């Protein structure tokens, strides 16, 4: 039995017949007419029927569409900052990447995700970690990075920041696990920092996250609180050791140039003394060679002249004493050098009597005078 045939105890199963009347599908013209009446009432149109009512409804509808189109057009303008790049998605799929400035997109069709590619971001990782020598240490690292590719940063992994944090934890635990505690706490921090950066770069390289590392900083490394005092004492001792070594090296760098200078000075003085002695010897040899012919020609005159020159040189560097022989058995002498010094300084005063010296006999003095006179005459004769 068909659905529109009468049956089933005379009941009509036709869905378009209600109340015993035959109703067909709704008329689209009537539907639009009703909508026009409603919009006409909103914009001031009366309940008049006929062509005037239909015209007002059409004008109102057109006006609404124009306003909606303008709103939609103006809502598509957006601005990308200087430090950002815009990732454009069309219906959720990557379309393009735009730079700084004012741009337009079709609203409800395209979506723009701004990504900061200039600012340096920070990420901190810390926790208790086990070292190679089975010690527990709390390490704090700080990673500084920035976005190098906006598309890879957004779509290469689900969450680039979280992935970088997990990669940092993995790299840090690996490096700490292959280091001893003394290196982590004191002298090996720079090595740990460099190894952590290399390991982290090796981990994130295959994922192409669009991130570049700027710096990796070793913030802190502390032992557990139960043994912290002992480790502080050990660290202080190591720091004192390094300080003493540096002070010793500085002292060595200060003393070494001074010692080298003294060595050079002594060597130069020795060289100068050597040259002086050599030149003096050469001068003596030259003087002797000039004096030899004269000596062969007049031996006595040359000998006397050499004697007088020698005595003159000797007496010029010795003190002089003036002896005055008086009647009696005593004599009084005056120090001429002191008198000359006093006279040159402007305070020449007669010196007092000095201790008396017993005089020699008259015969001795006369014989000495005769000897001196004979020596003087011989000298004069020789020079003549």
Topology:
Layout: E1 17-18, E2 21-22, H1 28-42, H2 51-74, E3 77-80, E4 84-90, E5 93-98, E6 101-104, E7 110-116, E8 121-130, E9 136-147, H3 150-155, H4 160-177, H5 181-185, H6 189-204, E10 211-222, H7 228-297, H8 299-315, E11 321-325, E12 330-335, H9 336-344, E13 357-358, H10 362-383
Antiparallel strand pairs: 1-2, 3-6, 4-5, 4-7, 8-9, 9-10, 11-12, 12-13
Helix pairs in contact: 1-2, 4-6, 7-8
What does this structure look like?
The protein folds into 5 domains: 29-74; 77-116, no CATH class; 121-223, Band 7 domain (Tetrahydropterin Synthase, Chain A, 2-Layer Sandwich); 244-317; 319-362, no CATH class. Helix content is 53%, strand content 21%. It contains 10 helices and 13 strands. The strands form 5 sheets. The chain has a 3-stranded antiparallel beta sheet with strand order 5-4-7. Strand 4 (84-90) and strand 5 (93-98) form a beta hairpin. The protein is elongated.
> Total domains, how many?
5
**Continuous helix count:** 10
Q: What's the shape?
A: elongated
- Fourth-tier CATH superfamily name of the largest domain: Band 7 domain
CATH topology of the largest domain: Tetrahydropterin Synthase, Chain A
Gyration radius over CA: 61 Å
> Helix and strand string, N-terminal first?
EEHHEEEEEEEHHHHEHHEEHEH
Adjacency order of strands in the biggest sheet: 5-4-7
Whole-number average pLDDT? 77
Give the proportion of residues in helices. Answer: 40-55%
Number of distinct beta strands: 13
Return the structural class.
Answer: alpha+beta
């Amino acid at each position: 039995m068909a659905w529109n045939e009468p049956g089933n105890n005379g009941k009509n199963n036709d869905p378009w017949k209600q109340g015993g009347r035959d109703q067909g599908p709704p008329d689209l013209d009537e539907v639009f007419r009703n909508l026009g009446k409603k919009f006409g009432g909103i914009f001031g149109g009366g309940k008049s029927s006929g062509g005037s009512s239909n015209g007002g409804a059409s004008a109102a509808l057109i006006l609404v569409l124009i306003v909606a189109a303008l709103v939609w057009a103006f809502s598509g303008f957006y601005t990308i900052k200087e430090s950002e790049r815009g990732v454009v998605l069309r219906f959720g799929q990557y379309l393009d990447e735009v730079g700084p400035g004012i741009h337009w997109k079709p609203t409800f069709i395209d979506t723009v995700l701004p990504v900061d590619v200039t600012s340096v971001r920070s990420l901190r990782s810390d926790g208790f970690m086990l070292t190679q020598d089975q010690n527990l240490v709390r390490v704090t690292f700080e990673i500084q990075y920035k976005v190098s590719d906006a598309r890879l940063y957004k779509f290469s992994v689900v969450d680039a920041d979280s992935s970088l944090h997990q990669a940092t934890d993995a790299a840090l635990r690996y490096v700490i696990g292959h280091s001893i505690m003394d290196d982590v706490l004191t002298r090996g921090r720079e090595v740990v920092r460099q190894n952590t950066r290399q390991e982290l770069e090796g981990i994130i390289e295959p994922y192409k996250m669009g991130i570049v590392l700027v710096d990796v900083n070793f913030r802190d490394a502390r032992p557990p609180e139960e043994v912290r005092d002992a480790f502080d004492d050990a660290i202080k001792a190591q720091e004192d050791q390094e300080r003493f070594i540096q002070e010793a090296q500085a002292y060595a760098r200060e003393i070494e140039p001074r010692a080298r200078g003294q060595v050079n000075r002594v060597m130069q003085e020795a060289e100068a003394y050597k040259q002086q002695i050599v030149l003096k010897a050469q001068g003596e040899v030259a003087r002797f060679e000039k004096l030899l012919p004269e000596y062969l020609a007049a031996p006595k005159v040359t000998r006397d002249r050499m004697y007088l020159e020698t005595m003159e040189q000797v007496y010029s560097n010795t003190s002089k004493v003036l002896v005055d022989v008086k009647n009696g058995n005593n004599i009084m002498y005056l120090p001429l050098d002191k008198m000359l010094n006093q006279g040159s300084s402007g305070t020449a005063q007669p010196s007092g009597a000095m201790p008396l010296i017993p005089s020699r006999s008259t015969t001795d003095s006369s014989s000495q005078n005769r000897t001196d006179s004979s020596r003087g005459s011989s000298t004069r004769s020789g020079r003549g």
